[in-house]
Amino acid sequence: MSNTLYSISVPPKSGRSPQGAVVLLHGWGSNCQDLVGLADYMDLSDYQLVFPEAPFPHPYNSTGKMWYAFPQDYSFWGKPDFGDRPDLSTSRQRLIEFLTHFTQTTNIPFSRIILGGFSQGGAMTLDVGVRLPFAGLMVLSGYLHAPLQPQQASLPPTLMIHGRQDQVVPLPAAQQARDSLEAIGITPNYQEYDMGHEIQPLALSQIQSFVKERLLINNEP
């Protein structure tokens, strides 16, 4: 299996060199094309948008991918040993390698990159976010693989958005993730909206505001 993740990259609409990058991870059963449409709805013309694809085929969708398989009971959040799953470990390592290679080939440092993800991609965002020095993280309808430890308190500023009517990743999973961050001294920008397992225009507005704020603050060369 190749160590390179397939991805779609959208260059800055401004035509200028990118002032930073936003990397968005899709959810379980989707693929890298799922979130590309968001690029047309966000005013982020100075930034490169990157959409990596998970490495594993989805068991029920011939065009879908997954970062890892779920247990049969779908109890997929907050388990102390969940992060040790072999498929999750593989995806974690390959995503880190992909992101590191991206910084080397584009000369965009981690301090100019926002990592975000939807659903399972949001969980991967938190998982990798404690391991690399991003400008910020965005967790959209996501959850936490396992409770964070005090030594992992280097998480960058984090935006968490979740729907109160989410029937795929229940609201308590998001609240548990928020509480785990706060327990080690990290206070995320946590927002709940009247929506389901989706990204509505109000959430898109929050996303682009967060990106601009974080990348303007982290304006290192």
Proportion of strand residues: 15-25%
Q: The biggest beta sheet, please?
A: 7 strands, mixed
Average residue pLDDT: 89
Beginning-to-end CA distance, first to last residue? 35 Å
Radius of gyration: 16 Å
Fourth-tier CATH superfamily name:
Alpha/Beta hydrolase fold, catalytic domain
Summed up:
The chain has 221 residues and is α/β, with parallel strands linked by helices.
Give a description of the structure.
This protein is of the alpha/beta class. It has a single domain, classed as Rossmann fold, CATH 3.40.50.1820. Helices cover about 30% and strands about 20% of the residues. The protein is built from four helices and nine strands; from the N terminus they run βββββαβαββαβα. Helix 2 links the parallel strand 6 and strand 7. The radius of gyration is 16 Å and the shape is globular. The protein starts with 6 loop residues before the first strand and ends with a helix.
Which descriptors apply to this entry?
single chain, alpha/beta, Rossmann fold, two-stranded antiparallel ribbon, 4 helices
